[in-house]
Write a structure and sequence with these properties.
By secondary structure, the protein is α+β, with helices and mostly antiparallel strands. The chain contains eight helices and six strands. Helix 4 runs antiparallel to helix 8.
């Protein structure tokens, strides 16, 4: 079953005094593009996170956001950067002198500068952290993939119906072809009779002329190939894994056959049906853009 490239997933995990949250969003893309946003102290795990995602997701732009909240204090502490505090005090004192202000530099002035405080974290056990991150990312990817598969089922139904409609249109064109040949025969007979100024026409010569024209307007091969493309398209729809590029190629081939039918037939009825074919192909193409 095909998979859509659009979807979202999420996950939550609370363990070992830590609460993790995860959000995943997926949109169309020609390739697999994974964008990750996570706390700085976890960034060493980014490549591992990507590995988990790409084991399941093969195509699409993935935005992953991971949050890490410690439920109890103790793993982080605030410290004072004395050098920074002195530097800011000197700057404020110089500013006071330049402006000729009488007020002294007080503590409430200095605490507005966040640079004088440093947040220090106890050394993180990266492997223990990874055990939690791997679990929540795996669950989030599973949730995302579930939605992408549901979207894929809807795309499958819609495209299968449209392929069936294409089959019907091509069959209509095939039914019109013998009528077209008979019209050519009648037209040539009348034209030859008018040129010879006689109702009697050499039937052998007429048959030869009709055969030449019929070969020129023959769209049998195009119709056969179109039916073949339709059959293969439906077969690919039932495959799992990335099939979007293959479906796009088949649509290009269908469009080429439709153009040839229209130019060969040179008939108003066929032209209208070819326009309908191309409209359906375009609708399917828009859907295929969502397929992984």
């Amino acid at each position: 079953m095909i998979t859509s490239m659009t979807g979202c997933g999420q996950g939550q995990l609370e363990r070992d005094n830590v609460k993790l949250g995860l959000e995943l969003r997926s949109v169309n893309s020609r390739f697999l593009d994974i964008q990750i946003r996570m706390p700085k102290f976890l960034q060493a795990l980014e490549s591992r996170v990507k590995d988990v995602v790409q084991k399941t997701i093969k195509r699409g732009k993935i935005n992953l956001s991971l949050t890490w909240e410690e439920l109890e204090e103790g793993s982080t502490r605030m410290t004072l950067d004395s050098d920074a505090a002195r530097a800011f005090h000197r700057l404020l004192t110089d500013l006071k002198d330049v402006l000729g202000l009488a007020d002294d530099v007080r503590l409430e002035h200095l605490v507005t500068f966040s640079e004088i405080f440093k947040q220090e974290r106890e050394e993180l056990d990266l492997e223990k952290a990874w055990a939690l991150v791997e679990q929540i990312v795996g669950a989030g990817v599973e949730d995302l993939q579930r939605m992408r598969l549901m979207e894929g089922e809807q795309l499958h139904r819609d495209m299968a119906q449209r392929i069936q409609r294409l089959e019907e249109i091509v069959s209509e064109i095939e039914e019109l072809y013998p009528q077209k040949v008979e019209q050519v025969r009648t037209h040539l007979r009348d034209k030859i009779a008018a040129l010879l100024n006689s109702p009697e026409v050499d039937e052998q010569r007429l048959a030869m002329e009709v055969a030449v024209v019929a070969e020129r307007v023959d769209i049998t091969e195009e119709c056969v190939r179109f039916h073949s493309h339709n059959k293969l398209f439906l077969s690919v729809l039932d495959n799992s894994g990335p099939v979007g590029r293959k479906l796009t190629f088949l649509l290009q081939e269908m469009n080429r056959e439709a153009n040839t039918m229209g130019s060969k037939a040179n008939d108003v009825q066929v032209a209208h049906l070819v326009v309908e074919i191309k409209e359906e192909i375009e609708r399917i193409r828009e859907q295929v853009q969502n397929v992984e």
